[in-house]
Amino acid sequence: MGEKDSLSKKFMGDNSRFADLLNYVFHNGEQVVHPEELLQLDTASVMSIIDKNGKTTYKQRQRDVVKLLSVVSSGKETFVVFGTENQSEVDYTAPIRCLLMDIMDYVNQIEKIAKGHRAERDSKTSADFLSGFHKEDKLYPVITVVIYWGTDEWNGARSLEEMFDVSNEAYRRFIPQYELNLVTPKDISDTDFGKFNTDLGAVLKFLKYSDSKKAIQELVRNDPEYRSIPWDAAEMIRLFGNFTFEYAKREENVDMCKALEDWAVESEEKGKAKGRIEVLAELVKNGIITVFQAAEQEKMTVEEFKAKAGLTAV
Q: What is the mean pLDDT of residues 265-281?
């Protein structure tokens, strides 16, 4: 499991952030879902497939995070299963992959219900026996949210329909849509970032502007939230934004303004050093100074200087 994968699962496994995500996606930022209402579920889904010869094979898929939420519908309590999929890269098969995981969750529900009926021996009709699922049985809805942590635009399909090349309307209107519930930094307006209630919004906003050094400097300078954000939120920014921030590992909170300033100074110093090495390398190539003199100037060994300057034939 990669570092980004592990960190994003842990980050979104937090109930406060998960509730914040659901409130943003489904309730326009209103505080409808509360952290204490969410129950962690097993992330593994296993589906058994029996072929015509009676041989059983098993397919397993692992979700990133799965939570169960109790909701009231028509005066009755029921449950909704929410799953999140974290993406560091665009997945061009995302609609199919998410649909498959949803289906596997539904199959698991049906199998558990059927197992209960077998134990109770309460199937009365041939239809009950055939499927193990009775007319009055109901499933819990399964909803998947894809979070794309990339700093560029999502250029993949956003629905199952987009994965087909069918223009004939007679058939196209029968193709299932299955639209992705996709959250990606570039799609979020500056106004909508105010709908987040946790540091999830701060991370997504930073990633949205991380391809512009000037923009993130202004963002961190003007938004006090970045003066003290949790360590794992800072790590999400560092890893997914491809930054080389320096701060004390595992400290409780991180001042992103200071981290950004230190990073900018370090980047400038590295740029100056690279510039000096390039100049010295040209002087060496032109025979004006020796490689020994150039290495001594940069306080490096000859081999170190050659490697950094890209000199092989000197």
A: 60
